[in-house]
Amino acid sequence: MAIQRALPADGDQPDRWEAQLRKGAVEMAALASLWQGRLYGLEIIRFLESQSQLALAEGTIYPILNRLKAEGMLTSEWVEAEAGHPRKYYSLTDAGRQRLRQMAEAWTSFSRGLSHLLESVLQQQEKIQ
To answer: How many whole angstroms separate alpha carbon 41 and alpha carbon 74?
Structure first.
Protein backbone atom coordinates (compact mmCIF):
# COMPACT_ATOMS: atom_id res chain seq x y z
CA MET A 1 0.00 0.00 0.00
CA ALA A 2 1.57 3.29 -1.09
CA ILE A 3 1.46 6.18 1.34
CA GLN A 4 0.70 9.50 -0.31
CA ARG A 5 1.38 12.95 1.05
CA ALA A 6 -1.87 14.80 1.54
CA LEU A 7 -2.09 18.33 0.16
CA PRO A 8 -3.03 20.96 2.71
CA ALA A 9 -6.55 22.34 2.41
CA ASP A 10 -5.31 25.70 1.13
CA GLY A 11 -3.74 24.03 -1.91
CA ASP A 12 -0.11 24.62 -0.91
CA GLN A 13 2.41 22.06 -1.98
CA PRO A 14 3.48 19.62 0.77
CA ASP A 15 7.09 20.83 0.65
CA ARG A 16 5.99 24.41 1.43
CA TRP A 17 5.20 23.30 4.96
CA GLU A 18 8.74 22.02 5.37
CA ALA A 19 10.13 25.27 3.96
CA GLN A 20 8.10 27.25 6.51
CA LEU A 21 9.36 25.02 9.31
CA ARG A 22 12.96 25.56 8.23
CA LYS A 23 12.40 29.31 7.83
CA GLY A 24 11.23 29.51 11.42
CA ALA A 25 14.40 27.82 12.67
CA VAL A 26 16.96 29.82 10.66
CA GLU A 27 17.48 32.55 13.27
CA MET A 28 18.18 29.98 15.97
CA ALA A 29 20.46 28.03 13.62
CA ALA A 30 22.41 31.18 12.69
CA LEU A 31 22.99 31.97 16.36
CA ALA A 32 23.93 28.34 17.09
CA SER A 33 26.49 28.32 14.29
CA LEU A 34 28.40 31.02 16.17
CA TRP A 35 28.34 29.32 19.57
CA GLN A 36 31.94 28.07 19.29
CA GLY A 37 33.36 31.26 17.84
CA ARG A 38 33.31 33.77 15.05
CA LEU A 39 32.58 32.88 11.44
CA TYR A 40 32.09 34.83 8.24
CA GLY A 41 28.91 34.52 6.18
CA LEU A 42 29.93 31.75 3.80
CA GLU A 43 31.36 29.73 6.71
CA ILE A 44 28.01 30.03 8.48
CA ILE A 45 26.20 28.75 5.38
CA ARG A 46 28.61 25.81 5.03
CA PHE A 47 28.47 25.03 8.75
CA LEU A 48 24.68 24.95 8.79
CA GLU A 49 24.53 22.72 5.72
CA SER A 50 27.07 20.24 7.08
CA GLN A 51 25.80 20.17 10.67
CA SER A 52 22.04 20.48 10.25
CA GLN A 53 21.21 19.83 6.58
CA LEU A 54 19.90 23.39 6.49
CA ALA A 55 20.82 24.73 3.06
CA LEU A 56 20.66 28.51 2.81
CA ALA A 57 21.46 30.99 0.09
CA GLU A 58 23.62 34.03 0.75
CA GLY A 59 20.56 36.19 0.10
CA THR A 60 18.84 34.47 3.01
CA ILE A 61 21.53 34.50 5.68
CA TYR A 62 22.85 38.06 5.35
CA PRO A 63 19.55 39.85 6.11
CA ILE A 64 19.16 37.63 9.17
CA LEU A 65 22.69 38.36 10.34
CA ASN A 66 22.16 42.09 9.83
CA ARG A 67 18.90 42.02 11.77
CA LEU A 68 20.48 40.03 14.62
CA LYS A 69 23.32 42.54 14.70
CA ALA A 70 20.86 45.45 14.84
CA GLU A 71 19.10 43.72 17.74
CA GLY A 72 22.40 43.43 19.64
CA MET A 73 22.63 39.65 19.33
CA LEU A 74 25.78 39.75 17.18
CA THR A 75 28.82 41.87 16.59
CA SER A 76 30.77 41.97 13.36
CA GLU A 77 34.23 43.00 12.27
CA TRP A 78 36.04 43.17 8.96
CA VAL A 79 39.19 41.08 8.82
CA GLU A 80 41.76 41.30 6.05
CA ALA A 81 42.30 37.96 4.34
CA GLU A 82 45.77 36.83 3.30
CA ALA A 83 44.41 36.07 -0.15
CA GLY A 84 41.39 37.82 -1.58
CA HIS A 85 39.08 40.41 -0.14
CA PRO A 86 38.35 41.25 3.53
CA ARG A 87 35.72 39.13 5.26
CA LYS A 88 33.07 40.21 7.72
CA TYR A 89 33.17 37.94 10.77
CA TYR A 90 30.20 37.61 13.11
CA SER A 91 30.30 36.76 16.82
CA LEU A 92 27.68 36.26 19.49
CA THR A 93 27.23 38.93 22.13
CA ASP A 94 26.26 38.02 25.69
CA ALA A 95 22.67 38.91 24.77
CA GLY A 96 22.92 36.62 21.73
CA ARG A 97 24.17 33.74 23.88
CA GLN A 98 21.32 34.30 26.32
CA ARG A 99 18.73 34.40 23.52
CA LEU A 100 20.17 31.24 21.97
CA ARG A 101 19.94 29.39 25.30
CA GLN A 102 16.29 30.47 25.63
CA MET A 103 15.54 29.43 22.06
CA ALA A 104 17.29 26.07 22.56
CA GLU A 105 15.25 25.38 25.71
CA ALA A 106 11.99 26.30 23.97
CA TRP A 107 12.88 24.29 20.85
CA THR A 108 13.89 21.23 22.87
CA SER A 109 10.73 21.31 24.93
CA PHE A 110 8.53 21.89 21.88
CA SER A 111 10.18 19.21 19.75
CA ARG A 112 10.18 16.69 22.60
CA GLY A 113 6.43 17.17 23.07
CA LEU A 114 5.72 17.01 19.35
CA SER A 115 7.89 13.91 18.96
CA HIS A 116 5.92 12.23 21.72
CA LEU A 117 2.68 13.13 19.97
CA LEU A 118 3.92 11.77 16.64
CA GLU A 119 5.38 8.49 17.94
CA SER A 120 2.10 6.66 17.43
CA VAL A 121 1.81 8.03 13.89
CA LEU A 122 5.25 6.74 12.99
CA GLN A 123 4.63 3.39 14.72
CA GLN A 124 1.40 3.00 12.77
CA GLN A 125 3.27 3.81 9.52
CA GLU A 126 5.80 1.04 10.29
CA LYS A 127 2.95 -1.43 10.68
CA ILE A 128 1.48 -0.43 7.31
CA GLN A 129 4.76 -0.91 5.46
So the answer is: 13
